[in-house]
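My current task is to audit a protein record that another person submitted. Alongside the sequence sits a line of tokens, each denoting a local backbone shape. Where you disagree with what is written, explain briefly why. This is what I was given:
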Amino acid sequence: MYRGDPIEMAMVTRYNDKGQLIQTVQNRLFRRPRYITENRNGDVIVSDVDRLVVTERGGGHRFTYTGPPSGSGLALQGICTDVMSHILVSANNTNTVQMIDKDGHFLSLILTPQQLISRPVSFFMMTKLTYSG
């Protein structure tokens, strides 16, 4: 959430599966949070206008991702993580879906501009469920 001038301060709140507030992260890291997810080790990943901001479970800053190349100013949209805590993010201005590792290092392009129709917005990861019984 953000209120007023986005340069002021934004806040990210976390709730448990019962809808109870469990944490509020309020600091100058976030400008205009758009999408949010959490990876397996509890990091909170926020798609924030032109960058990706990752905080640890307690709210401390881990890293900010703005590339590739670094500082390119992405127009970020949807984000999700996989079972290895890789972060997948859709970037509107480059028409790409990028994969970065849990420490913020670029790994690869999952989808390139040639593979997309245009402007990726959001997505989610599906896991294969098996039943034995």
About this structure: The domain at 34-111 is CATH 2.40.10 (Thrombin, subunit H).
